[in-house]
Specification:
Layout: E1 3-6, H1 14-30, E2 34-37, H2 44-53, E3 55-58, E4 69-72, H3 79-87, E5 91-94, H4 98-112, E6 116-120, H5 126-132, E7 139-142, H6 145-150, E8 159-163, H7 169-182, H8 196-208, E9 214-218, H9 224-235, E10 240-243, H10 251-254, E11 259-264, H11 270-281, E12 287-290, H12 308-312
Helix pairs in contact: 4-5, 8-9
Amino acid sequence: MKRVLLAAPRGFCAGVERAVTTVHRALDAYGPPIYVRKHIVHNMHVVHDLEARGAIFVESENDVPEGACLVLAAHGVEPGVYSTAAARRLSTIDATCPLVSKVHAEVRRYAAAGYLIILIGHAGHDEIVGTTGQAPEAITLVETVEQARSIELPGARKLAYATQTTLSVDETAEIIATLRARFPAIVGPRKDDICYATTNRQEAVKRLLREIDVLLVVGSRESSNSNRLVDTARAGGLPAYLIEDETEIDEHRLAEFETVGLTAGASTPEQLVLAVCDWFRARGVTDIGTHGAEAAEDVFFKPPPEPPRARAR
């Protein structure tokens, strides 16, 4: 190992920044404990840091004491969550990423207009669960190109598609092209559902591939967009490995490579990337730099409003 090249952009996106900030603001306004439904974002370091401040992560709104404060995670929820939270008199703060909310609105609009909706995404992912809940009777899930080639929709006269926001850009484009070839009248969103950060990070990896021998992606295993960065490198012909942090680096596996690429998923704090850089420095690697210019991302999402009781405190 002689050199480390960092991809740009990498790490936190605006939706993740907004969600994490939302929990911090709730802790400041209410004091602990603050309850968070599911992991606020898919990164265990972020989750553990918030737990240390007094956040309690739960699987369901039913696990929250009546009258407490509940933050909804960035991945979005099905409509029934809001009604259950209201029935339990929870002070609910919705940290759903605005780009996920956009997909929810699209799905509701298509369903109201009588469309059968093909939802492209990964079964069981929190975002897909929330999106499917917007119109469960109208949605059919497609995960792969093979499924897009074989899916049968008898009697469907009006078809639309929507996608999870954290998918592989290239694979999703192939799925959509397949659906369009099979169903020429299918309609889709005016603007791509895959979020800007997912797209930018995959494009940064593609630019990096010519300069490196192996890629490390810092991110959690539950993070869809982090896994897609691994897939992007492997699709380009290079070995790539997902690591939670520097403790998971396999030094022997990297020994055969001269230049190591480094990136991070959209829910990964930059301090984890810096810790990986320190790991390489401790082993004598001094040539550590960013590939190309640092790409500016100026997207900002305003934090959600706090419930009245939180503001009054």
